[in-house]
Please model this.
Amino acid sequence: EVRYMPDAWPPVWLGVTIEEELAFGHATRPSPERMRQALARWGVRRPLDAPLEGLTRREAVGVYLAAFSLSGAFLWLLDQPVDALAPEEARFFAEGLVREARSAGRIVVVAACRRQDWPMDEVLLWDLDARR
Model:
């Protein structure tokens, strides 16, 4: 299972709903209840039939992380998922990713520019700048 989180909004495929995005790529479509639970975990309070094009950046990140949660993938690769968010929003998602990794036994690899968004006592840091 591979999930991709684009960093551009609105997405290219305008008109897709939250439900369609969450169901994409699944052999068995997750139930609406599971979708709502995943969205709630990531702070998204929109109906499943809401179009992606109307989401804020914060809501869009929440939808994508809910999709990752529903995928059951063991390894998540995220490229700057919170860099365009306000610090308090970024911290909400960063702490949520740490919880998700711990509770579900996942490996979450994140490329990030803003170190201050991440709970440093909870993460393993590879500082690529230190190699220069």
Summary: The mean pLDDT is 84. The chain is about 35% helix and 10% strand. The longest strand covers residues 75-79.
